[in-house]
Automatic annotation (TrEMBL):
Its EC number is 6.3.4.15. Belongs to the biotin--protein ligase family. This is Bifunctional ligase/repressor BirA. Acts both as a biotin--[acetyl-CoA-carboxylase] ligase and a biotin-operon repressor. In the presence of ATP, BirA activates biotin to form the BirA-biotinyl-5'-adenylate (BirA-bio-5'-AMP or holoBirA) complex. HoloBirA can either transfer the biotinyl moiety to the biotin carboxyl carrier protein (BCCP) subunit of acetyl-CoA carboxylase, or bind to the biotin operator site and inhibit transcription of the operon. Gene3D superfamilies: 2.30.30.100, Bira Bifunctional Protein, Domain 2, Winged helix-like DNA-binding domain superfamily/Winged helix DNA-binding domain. It comes from Candidatus Thiodictyon syntrophicum.
């Protein structure tokens, strides 16, 4: 919807714009402005305010994604790791887009962002609430010479990388909950979704997806089925802009993916441990209808969760279980 996105860009500053100014700027007739505005804001799920004598505005300013700002914020090394940057106004899912790109031989280091997802997904098929222009929906494609079995630890390495980026930006009280949840003061701030394909003995490719809450209003948050937080709450006025944050996360995740290919999960386990919310906890895990309780015993070198249960030490892999802190 190119014309619609142009309208949203014009209104993104949150100021009032007169119908005459909008018509002149975008080459519309005065009578077409209202219809075009309603169509654009409805398409992207945005509210629109109007005031006689003042014009139209979005009630909340938006910082839209800008490839020039993102690329300009990358270091030389980060720019070298980045093969291609895709920014879309709307996708069903950034992960789905990159998995499709991978099948068409897109290179390692391809990154996809969207202003909005209409079918964003979390782990185990859960819906990821993805309103337009407020949060980050980011996916990265990477390729390895080894098979999918050796790639499972990337989810944990990615969590450690994202938490590290946010901590360096000043976010305190961060925690990671195995296998892929990022929490602030025990409320959901973000999540990761790893999808892998390839031959058993290699090669393989993977897509790491990240959803991160930057600014959610109460109406948007009602669709989330657990306590949630956003960076606006965590950092207040010190919260970085979307483009600066996107660049920092792209840089950190691409570096992680390269290091994982050389060193595996091991160097990331200490980083994970610094944010591990399960340490010292009684943990309950659910496998289908089966509930398992035990004392958390850390993470194996391959990323499996270890639990001391009545039956002894047991290991659980990402994708098999859900984790809840015990009472």
């Amino acid at each position: 919807m190119p014309r619609g996105l142009d309208l949203i860009r014009l209104l993104a500053d949150g100021d009032y714009h007169s119908g005459a100014a909008i018509a002149q700027r975008l080459g519309l007739s005065r009578t077409a402005v209202w219809k075009a505005l309603r169509k654009a804001t409805d398409h992207y799920g945005l509210a629109l305010e109007s005031a006689p004598g003042r014009g139209y505005r979005l009630p909340t300013p938006l910082e839209l994604l800008d490839p020039a700002l993102i690329l300009g914020a990358l270091s030389i090394a980060g720019g070298e790791r980045l093969a291609r940057l895709e920014i879309h106004d709307q996708l069903a899912s950034t992960n789905d887009r990159l998995m499709a790109d991978a099948a068409l031989s897109a290179p390692a280091g391809t990154v996809c962002l969207a202003e909005r997802q209409t079918a964003g997904r979390g782990r185990r098929g859960r819906t990821w609430v993805s309103p337009f222009g407020t949060n980050l929906y980011l996916s990265l494609l990477w390729r390895y010479p080894f098979g999918p079995a050796a790639v499972g630890g990337v989810s944990l390495a990615a969590g450690a990388a994202v938490a590290g980026v946010l901590a360096r930006l000043g976010v305190a009280d961060l925690g990671l909950k195995w296998p892929n949840d990022l929490l602030w003061r025990h409320r959901k701030l973000g999540g990761l979704l790893l999808e892998v394909a390839g031959e058993a003995q290699g090669p393989s490719h993977l897509v790491v997806g990240l959803g991160l809450n930057l600014r959610l209003d109460a109406d948007q948050g009602r669709a989330i089925d657990q306590p949630w937080a956003d960076l606006r709450e965590a950092l207040g006025d010190a919260a970085p802009g979307r483009n600066r944050l996107a660049a920092a996360l792209i840089e950190g995740l691409l570096e992680m993916l390269e290091r994982y290919g050389d060193l595996g999960l091991k160097p990331f386990l200490d980083e994970w441990a610094g944010f591990d919310l399960l340490r010292g906890q009684r943990v309950r895990l659910q496998q289908g209808e089966r509930l398992i309780a035990g004392d958390y015993a850390g993470i194996d070198p391959d990323g499996a969760l270890r639990l001391h249960t009545a039956e002894g030490l047991q290991r659980f892999h990402s994708g098999e279980v859900s984790v809840r802190l015990g009472d």
